[in-house]
Amino acid sequence: GDIQLDENKVLEYCFNGRWSVFCQLTHSEATVACRQLGHVTYTWGLPFEIKESSSSAADKSLFETITCTSSEKSLSDCNIQEGDCMKYCSTIMGLKCFVPEDCTEGSVQLVDGIEQGGRVEVCVNGVWGSVCGEGWDRTDALVVCKQMGFPDLEPIAYTADEFGVSTGPVVYSNVDCGGWENYLIECQKNNYLEITCSYATVAGVLCADDCSDGDIRLVGGETRCEGTVEICFDSQWGLIDESGWSIADAIVICRELGFHESTVDALLHSYYGKPNKAIHIGDVECYGTEDKLTECTMKSYSLKDGKNLQDNVDVAGVSCILSSSNNFTSSILRPDQSSISVSSPSVNRSFLPSVTRSSPSVTRSSLPSVQPHQTSSSQTSTLSVVSISLVCLLFILILVLCIGFMIYHKRKYLKKMKLRRQLIPVAMSNIFEEKYSSLHFTGEEICKKTENVYTTGDNPDNLYQDDPTF
Q1: Residue 463 gets which letter from DSSP?
Q2: 3-class secondary-structure state, position 420
Q3: Closest CA to 146 of 207, 58, 221
Q4: Bridge-based pairing state of the strands 317-322 and 226-233
């Protein structure tokens, strides 16, 4: 009734005074065996096949089968079926016992991959276990990505060993999500007691980032102006191998991010850290005049190659420190001096300092800092611009008032002149009536005298001088 595990985790049971191996073993028997081995707080007993063993029992079994319900305290309490003779096992069974960890029921994690992708593991009964790849598709992968906080974008689903084989129990199989679930535990599935899945056929995912090809950003810095450079390809944020990284490359990065007037530093040796992401590109070669990094020459890597390369290379970083200068002041940290500076609106690559991988790590104290007088100059410049704007605004206001005043008085003058033109004929009529109201001429006489004026050229005032009645 005793049991033991040899150095290869082969499970042996003492039967009729001799150690015997198991030719077959289910989760129920494995669970009881773990309990009997002293794992009081057990949760899983994982059986697995072993081709070769150093067991003293070799590949012979003295019993036919042992069947348990998983509630027994020891294998002796299970149903043991004896065989007529010693049984030869083509494969013998090993056992791995698990104890609870500090994980939340239903939580998911991605392992043996990168930040956006890996082998899917789920916490069940306090143990991290894999998901069988049978029936796994993009809808199931989408629920995992949503649960982990990635955008609601279509992921890639893997059903084999893209991210390695399972190192723990397989806890789910035949997962069937509808896509609306927020947690994988909400989907329909088979639990571990109903699973007969190969540990090399486990589910994996690659979640998508909300970015477009060629987008760049800086991460890991103390400000938005500095950090490790990340570039987006195939909806995945990735890193840049520092091989060949130079001032000209850093200038293009800062320009593309909008820092047109900056002090540019090219940082090496993963200065701002190396996120767990694939290497997208390397051997970048810019001239410093490009507007975007994608206009430079570079070497690109597949996702698989970039993931494998991530552990073996350092990544590129930049610092775009704001300055009051109108030109680029660029420097690259080197092992033999704190920095080399080049001031020019455009950079000729042939004059750039070379970068070698053998450079020692760079300390932050070697970075050029922005001097206090530069900050004061920037503030003074800002105040000057504000003052000029206020003066211009006041001048425009005065000009508008003057124009309005002139228009008002012109309209008033025109109105007065119009009134005069209307009153003059009336006044003249009154004067004429006053002056000649005492004259009594017939119409014929008046016409005659008038005709005489126009024909002789006499002054009209002399028209009635000889008339005794005037």
Answers
A1: T
A2: helix
A3: 207
A4: antiparallel
Q: How far apart are CA 72 and CA 79, in angstroms?
A: 10
Work out the number of other CB atoms within 10 angstroms of the CB of residue 369.
Answer: 9
Q: If DSSP codes are grouped into helix, strand and coil, which group holds residue 28?
A: helix
Q: Which residues of 402-426 are buried (b: 16+ CB within 10 A; e: fewer)?
A: eeeeeeeeeeeeeeeeeeeeeeeee
Q: Rounded CA gap, 122 and 117, in Å? A: 14
Question: Which residues lie below 8 Å from residue 402, measured CB to CB, with a gap of 6+?
Answer: none
CA distance 49 to 45: 13
What's the number of CA atoms in the CB half-sphere (13 Å) around residue 115?
15
- Given a contact cutoff of 8 angstroms between Cβ atoms, the answer to whether 133 and 202 are in contact is yes
CA atoms within 13 A on the CB side of 240: 35
SS3 category, 357:
coil
Instruction: Please give the DSSP secondary-structure letter assigned to residue 343.
Output: E
> CA separation (Å) from 458 to 58, 389, 467?
160, 73, 15
Cα separation of 470 and 466, whole Å? Answer: 8
Q: Which residue pairs from 375-380 have beta carbons closer than 8 angstroms and sit at least 24 positions apart in sequence? A: 377/324, 378/322, 378/324
Residue 387 parent element (H or E): helix 372-436
Mean pLDDT in consecutive groups of 10 residues from the start of the chain, 470 residues: 80 82 81 82 63 56 80 86 71 80 90 94 89 93 96 92 84 92 94 69 94 95 94 95 94 90 86 95 94 95 91 94 49 39 36 35 34 38 70 88 86 77 64 54 56 53 50
Pairing of strands 170-176, 127-131: parallel
Q: What is the CA radius of gyration of the chain?
A: 48
Q: Tell which residue, 160, 182, 184, has the closest CA to residue 172.
A: 184
| Count of other CB atoms within 10 angstroms of residue 435 | 9
**CA–CA separation, 148 and 154 (whole Å):** 14
Q: List, in sequence order, every residue forming a beta bridge with 122; answer none if it has no partner.
A: 108, 129
Question: What count of Cα atoms within 13 Å lies in the side-chain half-sphere of residue 327?
Answer: 9
Tell me which DSSP letter residue 365 carries.
G
CB 264 within 8 A of CB 249: no
Strand partners, 343: 329
Q: Which pLDDT score is estimated for 379?
A: 45
What whole-number distance in Å separates Cα of residue 250 and Cα of residue 267? Answer: 9
CB 264 within 8 A of CB 250: yes
Residues 6+ apart with CB under 8 A from 375: none
Distance, in Å, from the CA atom of 318 to the CA atom of 247, rounded to the nearest integer, reads: 9
Reading the block at residue 52, the tokens are: 């070769």
Task: Count other C-beta atoms under 10 Å from residue 63's C-beta.
Answer: 17
